[in-house]
Design a protein that fits this description.
Helices cover 41% and strands 15% of the residues. By secondary structure, it is an alpha/beta fold. Helix 9 packs antiparallel against helix 12 and helix 13 crosses helix 15. The model has no long low-confidence stretch (mean pLDDT 93).
Length: 372
C-alpha cells in the first residue's frame, strides 16, 4: 500500500470509508459485524491505515463498530477521521465526547464539520462549534481540523476563509470535475496550499454503471480493468489530494482497491482523455437535451401549467445520479405536476430538441410525492 504525507502523517493512499459497511438483511439494516470485521482486518493487514466515519453513519452504529473493530490494534497504527453534523445534534460538546467513547480513543486524528451545505454553513459559523473544535485541537484531542463540502463556490470560499483549516474532504471524481464544482474547488485548495481528501471517487457507484456506448470504449482500451478502476486511477492523478476514500462493502472490493493503490500508476494522458470522452458520451446518453428555451411553456403552451424545464432538469439529474436525486422534485415550483400531464403533445410540437416530454412526465409522476 502506497503511503503519502498528510499533515505530518504517512497515511495510506486508500482510505477506508465506513458508510457502506455490510449489513444484516432483514434485521433493520444493522452492520454485519463479522463481515465488516473481516474487511477492517484485511485493511490493517494490507497497509490501509486511514479510517473515515461520521456520527450519523449506519444510524449511529458506524463509530461504535469501528471503535470495536480497531480495539485490538495499537492506536498509533491507524488514523481516525470522523465528523460532526450540526443538523443531527446542536450539542457539539456532548457529541464530541460521545464520539471519543464510541471510538475508544482519547483523540481524533482528522476531525471534520460534516456536510457543509448552502443551508448549513452559517449554522456552523454561528454555533461556536468551530472555536470549540479548535480548542480541542490545541489540547491534543483533535489532530487536524477540516470540513466536508457540498455547497456553492461562493459559500465554500466564505467557509474556507472563516478558519485556518488543515484539510477539506470534497467530492472528487472525473464526472464532477467536468460537470460539477470539483475542479474549481480543487484548484482553490491547491492555490492556498490546503490538501484535500477525496470522497465519491466512483460517484457512489454511478461511474461503475455507464451507458453501453461509454462502457464499450473503456473496455476496448483496457479489457483488464473494471470501470471503477478507471475512476480510482483518475483520482490518483490529482496530486494535491492526499487520501482517496472508498466505501467498501465486501472483501472483494477492498482486495481490488488495495491492489489499485499498491502502485503509483494513475491514468496516462491518453487514458485520461479517453475516460473524459466516455463520461461525455454517458452524460449525452443519459440526459435529454433540454436547453431551457421554455418554448414548451411560453404563452401558456402547457394547458395544465407544468414547469416542464425544471422537471426535465430533475429528470436529468435523476438519470445520472440515481433515485436519490428525485428528492428535488418537491423543490420544483409549479402549478401543474407531472401527474397532471394530459398528453396533448403541445409541448413536443414546440420543442426544438424533439424531446418526448409526455413520456418523461409519466415516468416522473410515479416519483412525485407532491402530486395530488
Amino acid at each position: 500500500m502506497i503511503k503519502r504525507e498528510f499533515k505530518g502523517n504517512m497515511a495510506s493512499w486508500l482510505g477506508m470509508g465506513n458508510m457502506r459497511l455490510p449489513v444484516i438483511e432483514g434485521q433493520g439494516g444493522g452492520i454485519d459485524r463479522k463481515k465488516a470485521q473481516e474487511i477492517i482486518d484485511f485493511a490493517m493487514q494490507n497497509g490501509v491505515n486511514y479510517f473515515d466515519t461520521a456520527y450519523g453513519y449506519h444510524s449511529g452504529e458506524s463509530e461504535d463498530f469501528l471503535g470495536e473493530a480497531l480495539a485490538n490494534y495499537p492506536r498509533e497504527s491507524y488514523f481516525l477521521a470522523t465528523k460532526y453534523l450540526i443538523l443531527m445534534n446542536p450539542d457539539y460538546k456532548a457529541v464530541f465526547e460521545e464520539q471519543l467513547a464510541k471510538l475508544r480513543t482519547d483523540y481524533i486524528d482528522y476531525y471534520l464539520c460534516h456536510a457543509v451545505f448552502d443551508h448549513t454553513f452559517q449554522q456552523y459559523i454561528d454555533s461556536g462549534c468551530i472555536e470549540f473544535f479548535a480548542e480541542q485541537k490545541a489540547k491534543g484531542r483533535i489532530g487536524h481540523l477540516g470540513f466536508s463540502i457540498h455547497a456553492s463556490i461562493e459559500n465554500f470560499q466564505t467557509f474556507l476563509n472563516y478558519h485556518d483549516w488543515d484539510f477539506v474532504l470534497m467530492q472528487l471524481n472525473a464526472y464532477d470535475w467536468d460537470y460539477g464544482l470539483s475542479k474549481q474547488m480543487y484548484e482553490i485548495l491547491g492555490a492556498r496550499g490546503i490538501p484535500s481528501v477525496a470522497m465519491g471517487p466512483v460517484r457512489g457507484g454511478r461511474i461503475a454503471n455507464l451507458s453501453p456506448d461509454a462502457e464499450k470504449i473503456l473496455r476496448a482500451a483496457r479489457p483488464d480493468w473494471e470501470l471503477p478502476e478507471w475512476a480510482l486511477r483518475w483520482a490518483k492523478n490529482r496530486e494535491n489530494n492526499r487520501v482517496v476514500l472508498s466505501g467498501m462493502s465486501t472483501l472483494a472490493q477492498i482486495q481490488d482497491n488495495v491492489r489499485i493503490f499498491s502502485d503509483e500508476i494513475g491514468l496516462s494522458e491518453a487514458e485520461e482523455a479517453l475516460f473524459h470522452e466516455a463520461l461525455a458520451i454517458f452524460k449525452k446518453d443519459m440526459q435529454v437535451p433540454c436547453t431551457d428555451c421554455k418554448y414548451c411553456t411560453d404563452n401558456e403552451n402547457c394547458p395544465v401549467s407544468i414547469n416542464i424545464p425544471r422537471f426535465l432538469e430533475v429528470y436529468n439529474t435523476f438519470k445520472v445520479d440515481g433515485p436519490f436525486a428525485l428528492r428535488k422534485l418537491k423543490e420544483v415550483e409549479s402549478a401543474g405536476r407531472p401527474a397532471d400531464c394530459i398528453d396533448c403533445k403541445v409541448c413536443t410540437t414546440n420543442c426544438p430538441q424533439n424531446i418526448e416530454i409526455p413520456t418523461i412526465m409519466r415516468e416522473l409522476a410515479g416519483h412525485d410525492n407532491n402530486k395530488e
